Known about the structure:
By secondary structure, the chain is an alpha+beta fold. It contains 16 helices and 14 strands. It has helices at residues 3-11, 18-29, 35-48, 52-63, 91-101, 120-125, 136-146, 159-170, 177-190, 211-227, 249-260, 268-283, 290-302, 305-316, 352-362, 406-416, and strands at 79-83, 106-110, 148-152, 195-202, 231-238, 246-247, 335-340, 345-350, 378-381, 388-389, 394-400, 417-420, 430-435, 438-441. Strands 1-4-5-13-14 form a 5-stranded mixed sheet, sandwiched between helices. A 4-stranded antiparallel sheet has the order 6-9-11-7, sandwiched between helices. Strands 10-8-12 form a 3-stranded antiparallel sheet. It is globular, with a radius of gyration of 22 Å. The protein starts with a helix and ends with a strand. The mean pLDDT is 94.
Amino acid sequence: MRMVDIIHKKRNGQTLSTAEWDYVIQAYTADQLPDYQMAALLMAIYFQEINGSETADLTLAMAKSGRMLDLSQIEGIKVDKHSTGGVADTTTLILAPLVAAAGVPVAKMSGRGLGFTGGTIDKLESIPGFRTGLTEAEFIHTVKAHGIAVMGQTADIAPADGKIYALRDVTATIESIPLIASSIMSKKIAAGADRILLDVKVGSGAFMQNLDDAIRLAKEMVRIGRLVGRQTKAVITSMDQPLGMAVGNSLEVIEAIEVLRGGHTGSALYHVCLTLGSHLLTMANVATDEVTARQRLAESLADGSALRKFEEFVIAQGGNGEVVRDFSLLPQPRARVTVQATKAGVIQAISTADIGLCATLLGAGREHKGQQIDLAAGLMMACRIGDKVEVGQPLAELFAANSDNFAEVSSRLLGAISIGPKPVQTGPLVYGLVDENGYQAK
């Protein structure tokens, strides 16, 4: 095969064969194709797009470009959850032990934060001693012994995706739904779980800014899952404001533990976790319907079994389980300041991406891969859309190693929160579900 012929076909809108997709991915992963040819193909895909079977072929080829985990030694239906990214999206820390406490094995591979989106691995590593760099044998053993394990993505899992994503980032081809879908699903398929639940975010703090694009992305990923033999569902949830109140690594661990203790039962974070968890329980066949599953999860929070599973999980991966009782064991900020409202009114909107940027500027997030972060830094929101506020009322508290950029961050945060005179109606927290039958609005 010749890459120039493949580029020519796709430039003209023709369908590539499975063999052609395999050739492209294998050759590029092995450094046998120059970046300029792959960039040309990516641009052709961006403009011409690719059909469902092509997306599945591309996804499988990327999944097979490295090691594929075999979880067959673990009894039961193994589940995995993936979020498309957001701010204060602390669901994995709550959801994984919650679902595991219900008897469903959770085998999850997660990533680090980049830009304004947080990363599960960074959050877990704020717990003293917690290890995310597990070997495959350690990962499987931990799931078998404790029903739950979370490990960082390794370089040999879907390595083609890493190379292609880096090229997309510098060739203006990020915003291609087939390429986004294949990037996400290649890693999920390589991670080996039997059932995949996707949390597709939409709103000011999400990659998908409007509902139609979020539904389209969800449908594409669910279709890929079905074509490769993995039961896959996608829940579309709002990211028009931070999901939780804590934005930052150790701060989000604290909020997750508080939910696992049975608190924050009226919060958006709590409700999204129970919604996602109920789907995972039905997908794993341990509950017959979502109502029953949700009741079971709520009981696990109320009776403490979910919290005990979290502590067991932390200890199993080398962490200090005492964090569930003593938050002072977590990294502590040396400086803090409260940002107050400068006018009275009603919170009209919150630019979630700007809130995430504020946390990044405080040291909680990365602007580029490999950047060191401050695990104690971040902010704690004190308002949500629709809240009434008075002059001088706290809007958020900032945490950092020092106060050097508190003035800049405070100004940005005030600009991210719109206050007006009129009451405002908030949108839905959960928009709907995409499965093999298409999209069903909630």
